[in-house]
Amino acid sequence: MTRDWTPGTTDPALSALARTPRLLVALDFDGTLSPHVADPMTARALPEAVAAVNRLTALPDTFVAYASGRSLHDLREVTEHDDSSRILLAGSHGAQFWFPDTGEETDLSTEPADKAEVIDELRSLIADLDGVVYEPKTFGFGVHTRTAAPGQEELAFVRVEKWAPQRIPTWRRRTGHHLREYSWRDEGKDVALSRLRSHVQATAVLFAGDDVTDEDGMRTLSGEDVGVRIGAGETAATLRVPDPAAFAVLLDALADARAAAQ
């Protein structure tokens, strides 16, 4: 049963997590550290979230990762991440990785031969819709409707969801806030968390996200792991907070508890 987290309270799950020998804090970005914005590339984490992440990253045996549906290139841009960072990255829902010790891992060998034709068709399909945006991704594409004029979002999704099963039936479909996304790779946040956990040999994980795609990861959590859902919606998470600002407070509280436990 998911329960609301209230600032200033002591939650037993967070307290136990803070005492784990090797902690992984894996975070979605959009809607989790950053509010959703009309132009996805202008998204930035809230300053208080950045401060909490930096506190956690500096603690012994504590590892922070961003786990996002964004391509690795875009994720590094919006998180202002460079090669000197200690923060791990999982992009494209777990099909791309970046580690401080080994760098980037991206395998493009599965790219379909008709990728360009598929994308041309998709762009033509939505070209006349006001405010509906095509987003290129490393392993597919997204259709964003945050800036869509009234009635255009519904029309866009009807068109795309009629076309996609006929044209790209084997591609994975994902839904999100004002988003439809298709990928020829099948990895999800479950794969991302498994790889990140293994890489740092974590004994417990905090995973936070705000959308349907994050539930793949939430459902893998067990033991002393803690899932945090940001905002409304059905979830397998342990805790819920209303928005990224409240989640930044939770991260800061975890940093306090982790520092005290050590």
Question: Can you tag this structure with a few keywords?
Answer:
4-stranded antiparallel sheet; single chain; alpha/beta; 9-stranded mixed sheet; Rossmann fold; 13 strands; 8 helices; 262 residues; globular
Strand order of the largest sheet: 1-13-12-11-2-3-4-5-6
Distance between the termini: 29 Å
CATH class identity of the largest domain: Alpha Beta
Q: Number of domains in the coordinates?
A: 2
Helical percentage: 25-40%
| Largest sheet composition | 9 strands, mixed
Average of per-residue pLDDT values: 96
Q: Any idea of the CATH topology of the largest domain?
A: Rossmann fold
Give the H and E element order: EHEHEHEEEHEEHEEHEHEEH
Tell me which CATH architecture of the largest domain applies here: 3-Layer(aba) Sandwich
How does this structure look, described?
The chain starts with a strand and ends with a helix. The longest helix is centred in the C-terminal third of the chain and has 18 residues, at about 245-260. Helix content is about 35%, strand content about 25%. A 9-stranded mixed β-sheet has the order 1-13-12-11-2-3-4-5-6, with helices on both faces. It has 8 helices and 13 strands. It has about 260 residues and is α/β, with parallel strands linked by helices. The chain has 2 domains: about 5-110 and about 190-260, Rossmann fold (3-Layer(aba) Sandwich); about 115-185. It has helices at about 10-20, 45-55, 70-80, 115-125, 150-165, 190-200, 215-220, 245-260; strands spanning about 5, 25, 60-65, 90, 95-100, 105, 135, 140-145, 170-175, 180-185, 205-210, 225-230, 240. Helix 1 (about 10-20) crosses helix 8 (about 245-260), helix 2 (about 45-55) runs parallel beside helix 8 and helix 4 packs antiparallel against helix 5 (about 150-165).
